[in-house]
Design brief:
Elements: E1 13-18, E2 21-26, E3 29-30, E4 40-41, H1 44-55, H2 67-92, E5 101-102, H3 107-128, E6 135-136, H4 147-155, H5 160-173, H6 176-183, H7 189-196, H8 198-207, H9 211-235
Parallel strand pairs: 5-6
Antiparallel strand pairs: 1-2, 2-3, 2-4
């Protein structure tokens, strides 16, 4: 959608139930994705969120202000073709999960990582039977061989719309485990985001806040929260 900015031509965005799910209509005409597929989503709540984004447009359509629509487009146009590749890519995060790579010093940071990250790894072990182990330092180390297939099984359960949102949760946080913790309801999105920023927050405590880095982090945090929202919309019963 990045180069697609037509003028607003409609008065009202509405939603309607269809055989393929819920569709968004602009003055009775179906919204289509950039690949010209009908924009049909799995729940009414999701469709209403998409419709609200279209209704919020002024004279010109600005895709940057339409994250729910963008996620739906990705689910329909991309994941229908690349689903298995995306699942493999996300499962691979388990090999280098943020929560597993630990500092060797200073001791206060080592202890903080253990205190805040170990319970999440323990939860993943209990929930999914994957014993991801912490590793000191930045050198790659092999995780238990049966962990990645098990995690892949969990990811493969998501439909395309949930998977598109889940992709953003994992990519933004750098952690497959945190993504699963959010989508399972184990952690709130803001808590998971805070855990993903533990190292950066530590550095800011020691050396002060870098304004540019803080601004970039705030943008990512907003995107992370939106991904959690979209996942919830995709799995809503409404």
């Amino acid at each position: 959608m990045s180069n697609w900015k037509p003028k607003r031509f409609w008065k009202e965005a509405t939603v309607v139930k269809a055989d393929t799910g819920w569709q968004v209509l602009l003055d009775g005409r179906r919204v289509r994705t950039p690949a010209k597929a009908a924009l049909s989503v799995p729940t009414r709540a999701y469709a209403e969120a998409v419709a609200a984004e279209w209704d919020a447009q002024l004279e010109e359509v600005d895709p940057a202000t339409m994250p729910v629509t963008r996620s739906a487009n990705a689910a329909i146009d991309k994941l229908s073709i690349q689903r298995e590749e995306v699942i493999d890519m996300l499962a691979a995060y388990g090999e280098t999960d943020l929560l597993c790579y630990r500092a060797t010093d200073p001791q206060e940071l080592v202890l903080r990582q253990a205190e805040r990250w170990d319970p999440v790894l323990a939860w993943a072990n209990a929930r999914y039977g994957v014993a991801l182990r912490p590793i000191s330092g930045v050198m790659f180390a092999q995780q238990p061989v049966d962990s990645l297939p098990r995690l892949r099984e969990e990811i493969a359960k998501f439909d395309s719309f949930s998977l598109a949102a889940f992709h953003d949760l994992v990519a933004l946080s750098g952690s497959l485990v945190l993504g699963l913790a959010v989508t399972s309801g184990q952690l709130a999105a803001d808590t998971a985001w805070s855990l993903s920023r533990l190292d950066e927050d530590w550095q800011a405590e020691q050396w002060g806040v870098d304004d540019e880095a803080a601004e970039a982090a705030a943008i990512k945090q907003e995107a992370f929260a939106m991904a959690a929202k979209v996942f919830s919309l995709a799995s809503s019963k409404a």
